[in-house]
Design goal:
This protein is mostly beta strands and 145 residues long. The protein has a domain of 91 residues: Jelly Rolls (Sandwich), CATH 2.60.120.10. It is 8% helix and 41% strand. The chain is built from two helices and eleven strands; from the N terminus they run E-E-H-E-H-E-E-E-E-E-E-E-E. It has a five-stranded antiparallel sheet with strand order 3-9-6-11-4, with no helix packed on it. Strands 5-10-7-8 form a four-stranded antiparallel sheet, with no helix packed on it. A two-stranded antiparallel sheet has the order 1-2. It comes from Morus notabilis. Pfam families: Cupin_3. This is (S)-ureidoglycine aminohydrolase cupin domain-containing protein.
């Protein structure tokens, strides 16, 4: 069942109409208080906007099911890399963390050891590593999960 929420008026004054319906006049709010609704900006998570799928604290059974131990390994230290994905890529972070800033965005996604991330084909971002980092990765064909 839907509920109606009433909010104060947007203006700093209210209107009243007399009972005859012929006279309309403005009246100020009590104590000069202004009422209004502050606009809220609801932002979708970047993962949703860019179709990046994340599983946090992945169980060892899930890793075994995917065969993560047989995937290629990549390591780096503190650095920044511009990156674009030519194919879907599944990444399991074994050590460290990465901040992923999508091209044209001021916001970032943060992934840490134990996260399993699926980056979509044609995604472009800058990657920020603030220390030792190690991941296992696998390129995926369309429809592979």
């Amino acid at each position: 069942m839907a509920r109606v929420i009433l909010a104060p008026s947007f203006s700093s004054c209210s209107f009243s109409i007399n009972t005859s319906g012929k006279d309309c006049r403005k009246s100020s709010t009590p104590n000069g208080v202004r009422y209004g609704i502050k606009a809220m900006r609801i932002e979708k998570p970047l993962e949703e906007l860019y179709n990046v799928r994340v599983e946090r604290k992945v169980a060892s059974e899930r890793l075994a099911e995917l065969g993560v131990s047989r995937w290629s390994m990549w390591k780096t230290g503190k650095c920044t890399l511009p990156w674009d994905w030519q194919v879907d890529q599944l990444v399991y972070i074994e050590e460290g963390e990465v901040r992923v800033v999508p091209e044209g965005s001021k916001r970032y996604m943060r992934f840490v050891a134990g996260d399993l991330i699926r980056y979509p084909k044609w995604f472009e971002a800058d990657l920020y590593f603030n220390g030792p980092y190690q991941e296992r990765y696998s390129f995926r064909a369309y429809g592979d999960d």
